[in-house]
DNA sequence: AGGTTTTATGAAAGCACTTACATTGAGAAA
DNA sequence: TTTCTCAATGTAAGTGCTTTCATAAAACCT
């Protein structure tokens, strides 16, 4: 059996110390290019492959962070992912994305990930988990930070959806719109996360407070997807009893409304005003007024917090509440 | 770092030495049953899992695929990623994304990833690499499939950008537009990938063939980003010598042109027609005519091909050329 | 040139375990 | 009782790699 080549062999062959070889493996930019060349040469000559087990042992960790995310299709998830990536860019952590499609999958990941040792830390994005899961995370010492959903006494980055709804109401009413409507996503119960409902709740309460109108007929839910959004919006905008302004629980939906309005030859905001939620990249392109929850930033924060938990298991868990911000563009 | 319990903890808890614990793990019959009991007790109480075992399990059951992608901000990357994820969904592969920001980073990943054994297969997305890199991949037996960029005799999923450009020209001319313009992304040389240039080349050749007009002033490049796109489009659309139709090397840019047109109160397509490239999700929302390269599908294909290479190292490498398709909506 | 900061490197101390070797104390044989 | 085994356990030296710290060399600054 061929004797394993180790970094010692490589080091000897290249006439340098093992430390430098190791450094080359982990952060090549810290090694002079001249040395780098020598190492590369030696490694390829000896066809060296580091022993994963030894690496893991020496690092006492696998250096991987997992992200549990709804099967990414919604832009908002991508933006958060971007924030996470950014925060991890100059650490030595690899990012593994676990895209969740069904409730079963979610359950399975939640129970398996802590045990298998595939990751050193986990970010749960916009997905619900139970106190049981938390218990398991604790037992296996898996640090977890969640986004857009939280558990008591467990770190998370959240926004105040109720407040967001209220802000929307206040803003629209103040702009002079009295007959309001709401469009949200129904669909998958597992993912709903109350976020939509909370936004609606806040919206309602704001409306009551300020004395405007939100007819039952003007509260609509539809499945995730542009088609549905457009369809739904058409239904909303057609009748004579048309709302003056529509608040959507997400930008994607707002874009659907925009499209429907165009098809019905309605001017925005002259005939209907549209307000979204999220401020995804596209919102800017489309001049959509919306409520910004700093998506990139929230991902970033989650990653930072997770790193803290990982480097210091005693770090107190904390909930971060991101502030929301009305972004006025040309649809309101 | 997940504070793993070690055999030291177990040993301490059981009041014996680590060697005995280790022995218990490896050959339990060498340990007195009384001691054995104590160890078992301590282990279960501390929910101890030997690191090496965890590593081994993590490595044997689950393999890893890396994706090298431009720091993802462009929707087209995300869609391809989605396709990859989808293809991997019911396999036992974890997906690790490496977001590349600079040329140095790219170089570093390309040279280090094959060596470190962190991944079992690699997908390179829209990023250039050299024959040298290919050599290295071979040497370290790392299966690689690339997207939107290829190497001779190496598996990749590509599209014919020149043809795409030609299609654009043909289509626009046939629609009756004679004065044409082109907008592409300049910016980072590392990422450009010729794609833009090739599309322009094809566009030009198509125009020559059919005898239409493409003034030098009507060929513009700008940096990546919506701001730049809009700015650039404004410049293009302002003067009296305005083009009748604009072909953009990407949908994002086309959206920028749409926005600029709106700001300048130009009707689309009555005053200017706009044709994009990619057919990203948003294109549909915006009713943008475009040339579709099935992004999701290409990611999917790449993943499938990679899996094939991984399970059978002798599988012949192959280039897949995806076909392009004009999607006519309402901007042309 | 002189001093200071930066960068590249090596020495050596871990990491979580394994294992060869040493030690201990019982029981068996003398 | 003394000696000899031998099973049960501990000690400590590896394992291949990472990482901290110190140092030497190079790059910057007046």
Structure, briefly:
2 copies of one chain form a homodimer. The first copy, chain A, is of the alpha/beta class and 332 residues long.
How would you describe what is shown here?
The structure is a homodimer of 332-residue chains. With 332 residues, chain A is α/β, with parallel strands linked by helices. Chain A has 3 domains: 7-59, lambda repressor-like DNA-binding domains (434 Repressor (Amino-terminal Domain)); 64-159 and 296-322, Response regulator (Rossmann fold), CATH 3.40.50; 161-293, Rossmann fold, CATH 3.40.50.2300. Helix content of chain A is 47%, strand content 20%. Chain A has 14 helices and 12 strands. The first copy, chain A, has helices at residues 7-14, 18-26, 33-46, 52-59, 75-88, 103-116, 131-139, 161-174, 189-192, 195-210, 226-237, 251-263, 281-285, 295-311; strands at 64-70, 94-100, 121-125, 144-147, 156-159, 179-185, 213-222, 245-248, 273-278, 289-293, 319-322, 324-327. In chain A, the strands form 2 sheets. A 6-stranded parallel beta sheet of chain A has the order 2-1-3-4-5-11, sandwiched between helices. In chain A, helix 5 (75-88) links the parallel strand 1 (64-70) and strand 2. The longest helix of chain A is centred in the C-terminal third of the chain and has 17 residues, at 295-311. The first copy, chain A, is elongated. Chain A starts with 6 loop residues before the first helix and ends in a 5-residue tail after the last strand. In chain A, 49% of the residues are buried. The mean pLDDT of chain A is 90. The interface between A and B is large, with 60 and 57 residues. The structure holds a DNA duplex (30 and 30 nucleotides).
């Amino acid at each position: 059996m061929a004797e394993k080549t180790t970094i010692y062999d490589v080091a000897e062959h290249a006439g340098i110390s093992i430390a430098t070889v190791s450094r080359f493996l982990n952060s090549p930019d810290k090694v002079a290019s001249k040395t780098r060349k020598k190492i590369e040469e030696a490694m390829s000559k000896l066809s060296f492959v580091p022993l994963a087990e030894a690496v893991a042992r020496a690092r006492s960790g696998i250096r991987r962070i997992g992200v549990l995310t709804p099967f990414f299709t919604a832009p908002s998830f991508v933006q958060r992912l971007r924030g996470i990536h950014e925060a991890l860019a100059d650490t030595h952590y690899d990012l593994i994305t676990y895209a969740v499609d069904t409730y079963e999958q979610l359950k399975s990941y939640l129970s398996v990930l802590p045990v298998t040792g595939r990751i050193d830390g986990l970010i749960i994005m916009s997905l619900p988990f139970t106190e049981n899961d938390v218990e398991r995370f604790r037992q296996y010492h898996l640090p977890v930070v969640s986004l857009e959903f939280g558990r008591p006494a467990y770190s998370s980055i959240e926004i105040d959806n109720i407040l967001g709804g209220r802000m929307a109401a206040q803003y629209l009413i103040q702009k002079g719109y009295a007959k309001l409507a709401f469009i949200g996503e129904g669909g998958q119960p597992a993912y709903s996360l109350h976020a939509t409902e909370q936004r609606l709740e806040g919206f309602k309460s704001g409306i009551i407070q300020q004395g405007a109108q939100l007819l039952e007929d003007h509260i609509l839910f539809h499945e995730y997807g542009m088609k549905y959004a457009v369809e739904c919006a058409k239904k909303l905008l057609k009748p004579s009893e048309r709302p003056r302004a529509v608040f959507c629980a997400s930008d994607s939906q707002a874009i659907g409304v925009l499209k429907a309005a165009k098809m019905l030859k309605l001017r925005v905001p002259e005939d209907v005003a549209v307000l979204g939620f999220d401020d995804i990249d596209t919102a800017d392109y489309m001049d959509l007024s919306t409520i910004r929850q700093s998506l990139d930033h929230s991902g970033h924060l989650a990653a930072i917090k997770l790193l803290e938990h990982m480097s210091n298991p005693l770090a107190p868990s904390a909930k971060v509440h991101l502030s929301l911000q009305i972004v006025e563009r040309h649809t309101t």
